[in-house]
Write a structure and sequence with these properties.
By secondary structure, this protein is of the alpha+beta class. Helices cover 43% and strands 21% of the residues. The protein has helices at 6-25, 62-69, 71-76, 78-94, 102-114, 125-129, 132-136, 157-162, 171-177; strands at 2-3, 30-36, 39-48, 51-59, 122-124, 138-139, 152-154, 180-182, 194-196. It has a 3-stranded antiparallel β-sheet with strand order 2-3-4, with no helix packed on it. It has a two-stranded antiparallel sheet with strand order 1-6. Strand 2 and strand 3 (39-48) form a beta hairpin. The radius of gyration is 19 Å and the shape is globular. It starts with a strand and ends in a 5-residue tail after the last strand.
């Protein structure tokens, strides 16, 4: 393993910051703080028909508060950030970081849009391992980046219940739109594996 250059490390940090900005600017509604015990959590509140819908934003931290104070600015500059993100990704590829393939990227993007990661879903397994380069500041050997062809997501249901959040649209609907079909499982009425286009799980 070799260290990433200082340029790559800086670019990766900037990219993560832009992605965090986008995660907030894309949430519709007015930010509202709810307290649970000794902790606070931010939600975006908006009216849907006669009901109020609350979408979980994140735990009450200084970083979250700063972004919420800038939410209108973030929404107004979304197009500029999209262009800057593309530039940063090109720089990271030029620095030799391993890119995520298009199919995996599309699936992860759809899951993010549905709220999977906002509500505590976590990438694990080989897909997560391939993303460690930027976090650790090293270039992983190609032999250690074998892709098993699947995406593993850790359980997030309990967290979503505690935060009164939900994935919208549901994962089943999201996967169906991506041409996935559920695979049989031992648990009756439960699906934990999906296959896309006749491929493996």
């Amino acid at each position: 393993m070799t260290p990433l250059s200082s340029i790559a490390t800086s670019v990766y940090t900037d990219l993560v910051r832009l992605l965090k900005d986008d995660a907030l600017s894309g949430v519709e509604g007015k930010p509202a703080l709810k307290e649970r015990g000794d902790k606070g959590y931010w939600y975006a509140a908006r009216r849907v028909g006669t009901d109020m819908r609350f979408v979980y934003i994140g735990e009450d931290t200084e970083e979250t508060r700063v972004r919420i104070e800038r939410i209108e600015e973030l929404r107004a500059t979304a197009k500029q950030r999209r262009s800057e993100r593309s530039r940063l990704v090109r720089l990271l590829r030029a620095e030799g970081m391993t890119p995520t393939d298009r199919a995996t990227g599309s699936i992860l993007s759809a899951m993010a849009t549905a709220g999977t990661f906002r509500l505590g879903g976590t990438i694990v397994g080989t897909t997560a391992f391939r993303l460690y380069e930027g976090e650790l500041g090293i270039r992983l050997p190609l032999g250690g980046l074998a892709n098993t062809g699947d995406i593993d997501i850790a359980q997030f249901e309990k967290l979503s219940v505690a935060l009164e959040g939900r994935v919208d649209p549901g994962l089943a609907e999201t996967f169906s739109a991506l041409k996935f079909t559920p695979l049989p499982s031992l648990g009756q009425g439960r699906t934990w594996r999906w296959a896309q286009g006749g491929s493996g799980p």
